[in-house]
Design goal:
Elements (H helix, E strand, L loop, with lengths): L1 E7 L5 H11 L3 E3 L1 H12 L3 H6 L9 H4 L1 H18 L5 E5 L14 E6 L2 H12 L3 H23 L12 E4 L5 H9 L11 H22 L5 E5 L2 E9 L3 H12 L7 E15 L11 E4 L3 H12 L5 E4 L2 H10 L4 E4 L8 H11 L4 E6 L4 H10 L3 E4 L4 H19 L2
Parallel strand pairs: 1-3, 1-4, 2-3, 4-5, 7-8, 9-10, 9-11, 11-12, 12-13
Antiparallel strand pairs: 6-7
């Protein structure tokens, strides 16, 4: 059994090299898309949301949903299971997900594909039909995103440090065929043979992932370390009832198969100003409040937070439509009378482009005619100001439950 991981800078002929390898060997490619798809099933999430975890894009609702951390935990679980059952199979793993594999696992052949900017600009121009200036700008942005993502989620500061790779291939100097032949020439080396410590590192990675998923399912976002059945949980935020939290964490972790010992402590980077917040996936946590009355909507957001509901706030229709293009809420609470694009127009556009978003109209100026029009356009409910917070909370929960059931199929 041998595993090759290939991590490439953009526009370095990665797909061509992988295709050449699979055509000339018995290696089976496991793509990031396949890993994301399996993780989405395990997590009960939409694939697009899981895929977002492998980018720098972060939802404005992340502090309430922790969706990114939840998705990453499941991606690690899929990877660790793949490594646990890969005996007898020759695999190629590519993309960002491969960088989540701990460096302590050494029986891989780690390949990096790089090239100078001139080569990459030329490839980008050919593949994307870009001008030289556009290609260079795109490459700069992608390089910056790669550095930031690897630093934040993998603790890797240099994406292509030669010390982290068994083979670093400059694609501006090697053809696709030559690059593949170079990789193949190493496949019988002892470097691919698992050692006891490396096999243990695979088991540790699997246990870490299982613990992260178990905690995530109960609403916890914590740092997990696992070594030989001993699990260390690190809390990096202020907790008002620390002993109670420790008891809850311990009870969850001890139920995970393979855990022999649990240690819980505070991070050395612990800050008193950060407050630990357990999240509840069953509660509305992606609510978009749209209202030009800034004090009212700020107070409303705070009152919803006291009821364990997460919300983001915008003050005009244009901002609401812009946010929905790249960061979809489950529920929108929408005022009708706003400067610029009014609430009815926002409702109409949202239902045209994102019909799965449940829209609750909350207005102090609407007429019976407005109510009828909004309901015909697909609003979930039509409420008038002032509204009792208990009543509004109840309607938001009903709208969230409808959105949740639809997502789960």
């Amino acid at each position: 059994m041998a595993i090759i991981t290939i991590f490439s800078a953009d526009f370095c002929k990665e797909q061509e090299v992988v295709k050449e390898l699979t055509s000339r060997t018995n290696f089976r490619l496991t793509t990031t898309d396949q890993i994301v798809a399996e993780a989405a099933v395990l997590a009960g999430m939409d694939e697009a949301k899981v895929r977002r975890a492998l980018t720098l894009k972060t939802s404005v609702f992340e502090k309430f949903t922790h969706e990114k951390q939840y998705a990453l935990a499941h991606i690690k679980l899929v990877l660790s299971k793949l490594l646990m059952v890969s005996a007898g199979r020759d695999l190629i793993l590519t993309g960002y997900s491969s960088q989540l594999i701990p460096r302590e696992i050494t029986h891989f052949f780690r390949v990096g594909l790089i090239a100078d900017k001139q080569f990459r600009v030329k490839v980008a121009m050919e593949e994307r039909g870009l001008s030289a200036r556009e290609a260079e700008k795109l490459i700069t942005r992608l390089d910056e995103e790669r550095v930031q993502w690897l630093s934040k989620y993998c603790g890797i500061q240099d994406a292509f440090n030669p010390a982290d790779y068994d083979l670093l291939i400059p694609m501006n100097k090697e053809s696709v065929r030559d690059a593949a032949e170079l990789i193949i020439s190493y496949l019988d080396k002892d470097i691919l043979q698992p050692t006891p410590s490396s096999e243990q590192a695979v088991e540790d990675f699997n246990l870490q992932a299982m613990v992260e998923v178990a905690l995530a399912k109960k609403g916890h976002d914590l740092t997990v370390q696992a070594v030989n059945g001993k699990v260390k949980i690190i809390i990096n935020k202020n907790v008002t009832r620390l002993n109670r939290l420790k008891e809850e964490i311990r009870a969850i972790v001890e139920q995970v198969d393979g855990v022999e010992e649990v240690e819980i402590g505070l991070s050395k980077d612990f800050h008193q100003t950060d407050v630990y917040r357990k999240y509840n996936m069953e509660m509305p946590s992606k609510v978009l409040l749209v209202d030009d009355e800034q004090e009212f909507v700020k107070t409303l957001s705070e009152r919803l937070a006291l009821r364990d509901m997460g919300s983001a706030v915008v003050h005009d229709g244009e901002s609401a439509l812009s946010l929905i293009e790249h960061d979809q809420p489950d529920v929108m609470v929408l005022d009708l009378k706003m400067p610029g694009v009014d609430g009815i127009e926002v409702l109409k556009r949202v239902k045209e482009t994102s019909p799965e978003v449940e829209v609750i109209i909350l207005t102090g100026h609407g007429s019976e005619e407005d109510r009828k029009k909004c309901m015909e356009l697909g609003a979930f409910a039509y409420l008038r100001k002032p509204v009792d917070i208990t009543r509004l909370s109840s309607v938001i929960k009903e709208a969230h439950e409808k959105a949740r059931q639809r997502e789960q199929g």
